[in-house]
Amino acid sequence: MFTGQTALITGSTSGIGLGIARKLAAGGANIVLNGFGDPAQIATLRAQIAESCGVDVRYDGADMTQPHAIEQMMARALDRFGRIDLLVNNAGIQHVAPVDEFPLDKWNAILAINLSAAFHTVRLALPAMKKQGFGRIVNIASAHALVASPYKSAYVAAKHGIAGFTKSVALEVAELGITVNALCPGYVLTPLVEQQIPDTAKARGISEEQVVRDVLLAAQPTKKFVTVEQVAAFTAFLCSADAASITGAVLPIEGGWTAH
Ligand code: NAD
Q1: How far apart are CA 139 and CA 180, in angstroms?
Q2: Domain covering 6-187+226-259: architecture
Q3: What distance in angstroms lies between residue 143's CA and the mean position of ligand 1's atoms?
Q4: For 135-164, how does the pLDDT look when each residue is reduced to its tens digit (9 = 90+)?
Q5: Whose CB has fewer CB within 10 Å in the chain, the N or C terminal residue?
Q6: Ligand 1 centroid vs 49 CA: distance in angstroms?
Q7: In the chain, which segments carry CATH 3.40.50.720?
C-alpha cells in the first residue's frame, strides 16, 4: 500500500507512535523513527521493523522542543529518502496540575512538543509534498482536542490548537493532493497515561484504582481503553489512496466519549 513511500513519525519510540510506525512499515513504507529512549533498545526496534517488513528504517533523535533540531531532522530525512510522503505528528507529553500551580516549564514544553513541533514539521515537509503533488499529514490530537478535563490546561490548549492548525493547513493545500487530518483518541494505555495516574490521584485526592475507573474510563462509554493497533489502523487508512477525500477533519476514536 505504501511501497516506495517514506513515513516520518514523531515520538515513535513508544506507545501510539511506535504502533503507527509498525503499521506503516508493514504497508511497505520506509520509516523515520523519532523520540527518546535507550539507544540499544531503539537500535533493536529499528532492526526488528526493518527486517520483518523489508523496509529502510532510520532513527532521528531530534528533540521536538527545539525548532533547529526539527529542521535538521527534516533535512536529514529528505536527504536520505528524497521525499516525505506520510508525516505523522505524534510526539506528545502531559502534565496534570491545577492551572494556578502549573509549572511554567511544563506549560512551555507541552505547547512546544504537542503543538509547535507540528508547525515546524509541516512547514518543512510541505515544499517536497507540493512538488510531488502528494502528501498525507496526520496529527495525533486527542479527545482533549474536542472536550476538556480539569487540571490539563496546557494539554487541552495544545490539542485544541492542533485541531485548528489541522483545518487551516488542510484548506491551504486542499487542491494539491495533500490531506491534513487530526485523530482524537480517547484513553490508550501507553506510558503517557500510566505516568499520569499517580498525579491525577494526587490532584483529586483519590486512589489510583479510582482514577482508572472513575476518571479515565468514566468518560469513555465503551469502558475499554482504545488500543494502539486501532489508532495505527485508522492512521494507515488516512494515509491511503482511499482517504483522498478526507481532509481538514478532526476525527474521534474515543469509544463514544464526545457523544456525551
Ligand atoms: P508515549 O509517552 O508512549 O510516547 C510519546 C513519544 O513521544 C515517545 O516516543 C517519546 O520519546 C516522544 N517524545 C516525548 N518528548 C519528546 C521530545 N521532546 N522530542 C521528541 N520526542 C519526544 O505516549 P502516547 O500515549 O503514545 O502518546 C502519543 C500521542 O498520542 C501524544 O501526542 C498524546 O498526546 C496522544 N494521545 C495519547 C492518548 C493516550 O491515552 N495514550 C490519548 C489521546 C492522545
Answers
A1: 8
A2: 3-Layer(aba) Sandwich (3.40)
A3: 14
A4: 999 999 999 999 999 999 999 999 999 999
A5: C
A6: 19
A7: 6-187+226-259
